Amino acid sequence: MAGNKIEILYQDSDIIAVNKPAGLEVTNDRSGGENLIALLQKQADEDGLIIIHRLDKNASGVILLAKNEDAQTRFQNLFEESKIKKTYLALVSGRPENRTGQIDVPFMQCKRDSRKVEIAEKKGKDAETRWELLADFGRISLLAVVPMTDRTHQTRVHFQYAGFPLAIDPLYGANTPIMLSSFKPDYRFSKDAEEIPLIERLTLCAYELKTENIHLVAPLEKKFKATIKMLTKYNPKGPAAFLNDRNFQKLLNSELLELHI
Q: Considering the entire predicted model, what is its pTM?
């Protein structure tokens, strides 16, 4: 991250919205590494930025930060009242049976591994995730995801439970990078160099965020975008893998998607 500027999507006197890179913590953690708030304080000369909502370290995309406590309270209340809509993109293993769906299953902190959460239908906290199939590439699908609640690892554990985990997720699924050779039929291996993965991190990004007055889209990170382009090009259906072909171009152009959830 050193030397790279954080992309600012929007700001006013109360909030700042940015496109967080994957691998960057939002605030301090035990590792003592770089974090989003510290970088923004230097870049944008903003002291006292405050977290409003969650975004996993290894996910990329749009995140809102407050510039004061009143704004933090106001926007957190809007999230709780479902007046702010976040839409994620998720590359998952397999294909859901339906075009849209809803997962309404409680979960709680995992007792065996504090890094994780686990399904707990009787003792867990309520959690609801809605999703829509955007593209069926075969072994991998692209989903649009709208969490109706804001719980830690919600999408990750819900998709694991539903049988289509994130394509790459070291905690809840596989940790195998997506390689072009795994789905391009005539891929030729180089004798002199190892194949570089298309993507090797959590296959989840926060793509859209909508309030009553603000509509934001976070341009796709380079590797996430390249992976979608290659999957679209080399799957057996080609661009027809997208159920709505307009959404493929909208992703490439960083535009709001046409969704039914």
A: 0.94
